[in-house]
Design brief:
Layout lengths: L3 E5 L4 H12 L3 E6 L13 E4 L5 H15 L5 E4 L14 H29 L3 E6 L12 H21 L4 E8 L2 E2 L12 H7 L7 E2 H12 L10 E4 L17
Parallel strand pairs: 1-2, 1-4, 2-3, 4-5, 5-6, 6-9, 7-8
Helix pairs in contact: 1-6, 2-3, 3-4
């Protein structure tokens, strides 16, 4: 019996990369987006679901649609929905803050909750991967709102993993550095921006969507069957090591 994966944020750069890699390894797919028109060229046989997973109703709709199509809940959840905001605290409006929390933390909370309930009702095991960020674990300027939301995701992962481990449910997350996707392309626009971003990472480059997608797909796989409650850094060494900085030569 083919395994079923639910991918949220499937129209985004990371969601598309996860979708491709899961399809290549034989998963049946249920793809979720708030705007179905953005789900371009889904794999053959994929179920496309229009739902806003930042609400409990939208998250439940996604699981219900999967059950109706495949006869059971998904075996795996790749929650790739989210947003990015770069702004200092004193220039972040209440509306911007609430949107960041809605898109990143609320969506993770409600989607994971609906997934867990589906698995428990069906008495089946499952694996979920959420998306955190390096900014939840190391201070990076102008990231206060997104850092707060993603730190909430980290806490959610650890607590849910503890609660549901005995039921055969694994819950993990990845914490990527900057991934070059349509959502972050504006960060690369200025003169020297690309080189400056790459220089922040000990491995000498910024991330691609496939870098993070590969980690997500592994965490959902049987190869990670003894891994739960973890937030895996996928960040080119950003949070763990520092590159050697060579002193400028004397004139």
């Amino acid at each position: 019996m083919s395994r079923i994966a639910l991918v949220t944020g499937a129209a985004g750069g990371l969601g598309r990369a996860v979708t491709r890699q899961l399809a290549d390894t034989g998963w049946q797919l249920a793809l979720v987006s708030r705007n179905l028109e953005r789900l371009q060229d889904p794999p053959a046989g994929a179920l496309c679901i229009g739902a806003d997973c930042s609400t409990p109703e939208g998250a439940s709709k996604a699981i219900s649609a999967c059950c109706e199509r495949f006869g059971r809940p998904p075996d795996a959840l790749a929650h790739c929905a989210g947003s990015v905001l770069l702004a200092p605290l004193h220039r972040t409006s209440p509306e911007q803050y609430r949107e960041v929390v809605r898109a990143n933390l609320d969506s993770a909370f409600f989607t994971l909750g609906a997934f867990v309930k589906g698995c428990l009702d069906a008495k089946q095991p499952g694996a979920a991967v959420l998306v955190s960020s390096v900014v939840a674990r190391i201070g990076v300027l102008n990231h206060e709102a997104i850092a707060a939301a993603k730190a909430g995701v980290d806490g959610l992962v650890r607590s849910a993993a503890a609660t549901y481990a005995a039921k055969g449910l694994r819950v993990n997350a990845i914490a990527p550095g900057i991934l070059r996707t349509p959502a972050t392309e504006r960060l690369f626009a200025g003169p020297g921006a690309e080189q400056g971003i790459a220089a922040q990472y000990p491995l000498g480059r910024y991330g691609a969507a496939n870098d993070a997608a590969g980690a997500i797909v592994w965490l959902l796989s049987d190869g990670a069957s003894w891994v739960t409650g973890q937030v895996l850094s996928v960040d080119g060494g950003f949070t763990a090591v520092r590159p050697m900085v060579r002193a400028a030569a004397a004139p």
